[in-house]
Amino acid sequence: MNYKRLVKKINLSESDYKDIEEAVKKAEAGTKGEIALAITPQSDTYAFWELAIAVFTSFMLLCSLFPLANQVYAWMNRVFWLPKPWHLIAFYTALCVIEVIAFYLLYNIPWFDSLIIPDHVKEKAVTNRAMRYFTESGVYCTKEHTGILIFVSYLEHEVRIIADKGLNDKIPNDSWEQLADEIAKNIAKGSVKDGFLNAIEKCGALFAENFPLESTEATVSTTAEETCEVNPNELSDSLVILKE
Q: How far apart are CA 150 and CA 39, in angstroms?
């Protein structure tokens, strides 16, 4: 799956992206928490598995044709002038190469990918990609170590929520797993926006309960109408769509 296909699949408008961004700002306001959001088409190319399974499929198909060698050689006698025995070997070799290429291209179709790649391979790939982005985006280095990454890998239908040390000290991991399951269910129903908004709102509630912003740590914003404590923003509030 590529970037353009993902954008089409999630079907989010500009106002949807804005709503998600505003929801993050609201959830973080008055707390020490920081939320990062990312979605990727797929967490790995799975090229090794696609090629390995293409070779295996081609080999099995080739084996099924060995009993027909006499018929194939008879056909070659009708088509070519005086074929030699090694021509039969060359024919089978060429057929095998063509099959490998054809099956490899076939297995690159996302629908086939989701069927042929073992679940444990996909799960590991998503976890590794999420951890990589956790580092790349700087979620791990917020001042209070209270950053959280909500990471969605679309092809694998997997969601990872990775919380930094400060959050995990007070909030049990079960809370994040439950939240990840809820996001996955919403996305499965085609409600990508609702999945993110629901998760962001619940993160905000957990932040407010466990990590309220103290007045001495807050940036004070004063207008003619109100005075409020503002969380100094350390991470991007927008949903990031990764290209790879």
A: 8
**What are the CA-CA distances from residue 156 to residues 57, 113, 159 (Å)?**
23, 9, 9
Long-range contacts of 177-184 (CB under 8 A, 24+ apart): 179/203, 183/150, 183/152, 183/159, 184/157, 184/158, 184/159
- Reported as a single tens digit per residue, the pLDDT across 116-167 is 999 999 999 999 999 999 999 999 999 899 999 999 999 999 999 999 999 9
- Three-state secondary structure call for residue 162: strand
Q: List the Cα angle 179/180/185 in 5-degree steps.
A: 100
How many angstroms separate the CA atoms of 42 and 152, rounded? 9
Q: What's the gap between Cα 142 and its chain centre?
A: 24
Nearest Cα to 234, choosing from 46, 25, 49, 61?
25
pTM of the model: 0.85
CA atoms within 13 A on the CB side of 119: 2
Q: Residue ranges of the alpha helices (H) in 169-242?
A: 173-188, 192-210
Gap between the Cα atoms of 27 and 199, Å rounded = 10
